[in-house]
Amino acid sequence: MKMMREKIVGSIASAVEHLEKSMGALVKKDEGSMESSVWRAASDVEYSLFLFSLTQGEEPESSSGRSDLPSRQAEIGPILMLAQDLLKEAMGTIDAGDLREARKKTWAARVHLLKARELIEKRRKSGEKTTLPPP
Q1: Which of 59, 74, 108, 130 is deepest in the core (most CB within 10 A)?
Q2: What is the mean pLDDT of residues 90-104?
């Protein structure tokens, strides 16, 4: 169990690092690096959720899989920051021994990453540049 917990924490920590890189790339207007880092973070989150399912069994998630953010007003930067915050909270709850809560937070981060990837794809199709909202 301890080794599985370490793998989960490592995967979540990797996702947090990739989100940090994605936000840096977003600020630099480096679309390719930003997209790649978001994809890697999403991959790490999926792996974490897989590991959670191995330790806790399959459970239907309580959330509907939808983001609370209105789609027309959603910006990629804030979504990525929210996902990163949720993952950091998940690591804290793992340290506190609450794997169920960590799984819920990781699942919520997944929902936000899916929303970010949806926005990236939508903007790519429309030819719009991905930028941070004005301060």
Answers
A1: 108
A2: 94
